[in-house]
Amino acid sequence: MSIIVNKKTKVVVQGITGQEGRFHTKQMVEYGTKVVAGVTPGKGGQNLDGIPIFNAVRGAVRETGANAAAIFVPPPFAADAIMEAAEAGIGLVVCLTEGIPTLDMITVHQYMKGKQTLLIGPNTAGIISPDKCKIGVMAGYIHKKGRVGVISRSGTLTYEVVDQLTKRGIGQSTCVGIGGDPIIGLNYLDLLEMFEKDKDTDAVVMIGEIGGRAEEDAAQYHSNHMKKPLVAFVAGVTAPPGRRMGHAGAIVSRGVGDAESKMRILKDAGITVVKNPAHIGETVAAVLGQ
Amino acid sequence: MKIHEYQAKQLFHEYRIPIPKGVTVRSAAEVRQALAGLGHIPLVIKAQIHAGGRGKAGGIRIVNGAKEASRAAEDMIDKRLVTDQTDSEGSPVNHVLIEEALETVKELYVGFAINRENACVSIIASSEGGMEIEKVAAETPEKIAMEMIDPSVGLRPFQVNRLFYATGLDSKLSKQMSSIITNLYRLFMYKDCSLAEINPLVVTKDGQIVALDAKLNFDDNALYRHPELMSLRDDQQENPLEVEASRHHLNYIKLQGNVGCMVNGAGLAMATMDLIKHVGAEPANFLDVGGSATSSMVREGLKIILSDKAVKLVFINIFGGILRCDTLAKGVVSAAKELDINVPLVIRLEGTNVDEGRRILADSGLSFTVAENLKDAAEKVSAFL
After folding, report:
1. A147 and A278 share a domain?
2. Nearest CB partner across the interface for A213, out of B117, B263, B275
3. Is A264's Cβ below 8 Å from some Cβ in B?
4. Testing the interface with A: which of B116, B288, B379 to mutate, by most A Cβ within 10 A?
5. Is B193 in contact with B217 (CB distance < 8 Å)?
6. Predicted-complex ipTM score
7. Chain-wide mean pLDDT for chain A?
């Protein structure tokens, strides 16, 4: 088992004919992901390496039974693309686009209320259940199938952590990038709940960073609702307050969201906190008794 | 993006939010011209920098009449102002705002911001203006009123009403206050702000509500749809290396340490800075070259790091996913040949095409210290310090 994506996941790629969309569609297919359709308005009826292209998501769902969407649409149009996928009844939307205006994401968030669609991102590297399905831009080969769940707000730092795990023989059930923006879809809490329920996940690694209160909420959730061990790292101890550290959401603002206080709150909640990013793999191994 | 107070006040004026009468000047000559013929009236002289903490640092002065005002303004213009929110060099004062000093009876706070947890815009109002709002929230939370704005219907009159009564003002001020709050909300939404704050918003002796200060920050991701805001950008308020980096689409932030670092991805960049601290050093910068860096971006990035004279060692940490290690290695080698690098260079490469990347480094004939993994890199960085 794994969470959210597996061998039954059928993906429609929105923005499939763009440079990013085209490149990563190829990569996803090579990894074994079932990419069943693409969407680019005006290019309906064409195909990309045999993948049929539609003008709108609705047609793609009707014709191919796609149940997940990967969005590689440029920022000005990405919010609309998320809403289009949700309206078409897609169960999972993974939005890889970085740079969507915050007010657009507030509208998206409102629109998704009451709908069954799960949103991952935006500004994420995506989601992967090793050997089953990858929807995203991460390098597939560093992953290994196994029993540790990974949740992260960043891309390459997740590769680093996954690499440390894989090199110690620790595989992953599912790795999810929740995205580096201030307003995102699924958050730590939603995913911790799914990992807690997943029979094939033994422990969870959470890669946090400065900004917002999501790590603090996760700490509270873990103490109240979880039995599985959680190992946490929070990036940005050295980040100066008031500066946005690359990700739109990574900013210590008005005394909220600094790394030290996040780590303290996580530790107080009984969570294993790793301070040195080079030690994440060995800490997980120790927690698993390996 | 941040803008100056005087620019924010121009936008306030456009959106019919009352501001004090004033004039912005850029030179001593302009000061004299602006104040010519003005009698002996109280004036406020305000240095225009992006950082806060101006009051305590002498960047805001109350004076009497044109003569004192000229002297105060000339003292500030073309100097640098150091506050508790700037670095030790301070920020350049190229503009000074001169305003009528108002007789006030009450100071309030009103501010709109993005509420991340609830995915909405929220507004805070408080009867305690003129102080840091975080301090008020921590010490006297009962003096803070907050409303979450439902994006499907926007700010509602009942919410404006509730905020007004929470401030404890006399009912006859209700109309003025409602208009200010509603207009500030319009500005926030139309211009894609990330913060719109009036602190203090004052009630004058003659019963007028006026924005004494004005702070607007804009969502960088939305600037593409506001070309009119681009002219408000003041590069001089930013570190020159940061300005240079952004020209090359590099995300660089200057810090105070001596270990320069170049990393792909913001999260890994922060973690790399943290690692540097773990080995007992301080990072000289944050630099994310991004997922799709070209070798020329890598070269420019290295140039920027090395132009910071405090840098005694450079640590390049790349986990290639989209950015391939061979691309990175070519960029580093070409930069090293072009620049005169006199500091040790520790390079850690992992990910796509790592073997090819390592081979390019080894064959270059240049001296790099190559690290196998993050732990090894930490040890090698530490060995040079």
Report:
1. yes
2. B117
3. no
4. B116
5. yes
6. 0.93
7. 95
